[in-house]
Amino acid sequence: MTSVPRTSRPLVLAGGAVLLLALALIALTFVRPSTSAPAASASASAPAKTSADVGFARDMAVHHQQAVEMSFIVRDRTSDEAVRRLAFDIINTQANQRGMLLGWLEMWGRAKSSPGPPMAWMGHSFTPRGDGALMPGMATDAELDALRAAKDKKAEILFLRLMTAHHRAGAEMARAAAAAAGTEEIRNLASGMALAQNSEIALMADMLKERGASAS
Q1: By 3-state DSSP, what share of the chain in percent is helix, strand and coil, each rounded to 5?
Q2: Which residues neighbour 214 within 8 Å (Cβ) at sequence distance 6 or greater?
Q3: Is 0.85 topped by the overall pTM?
């Protein structure tokens, strides 16, 4: 019987390795990291540091952070399903929006906090009083402590009152940003915030009435 010549296995493997190496080198020419030009372009097109876009993003991120904090507090202070559901909605919505605002600041190459007073971009800066309320509508440290100490119906009423004041100021800030912002992202987000928070203000008024209380 005549034997059939066989290709050497090491030679086949070596040839395959060379082919893979060549393909890898070709691929690298297409995925080479880009230069700093795109980053420079993004920075050049970003809103100015003193713009309504940047100011709103910074201030509303802080404002939202406290709303999320208050919602987590009341969630653990009551078993009422309606209040817990509202708190859950605020946590999810405002934490998500806060992430968007901080993400835009990062993309624009702008600091996430300002050395100046808050709300200067609205034409009237706010000077914190030293009680923990950094902007209009925000709860003081004492009010947050009272919410942590309250329970059940008392906690529900206090939360609804604090959040109503918080939303009123937040909606005012959002309307100002929707009118003054230069980027479509901020204008759209701010407009949606104002509508949503006004809707929740009406909802909370009804919830307070059900509990024999008012917003003030």
Answers
A1: 70, 0, 30
A2: 208
A3: no
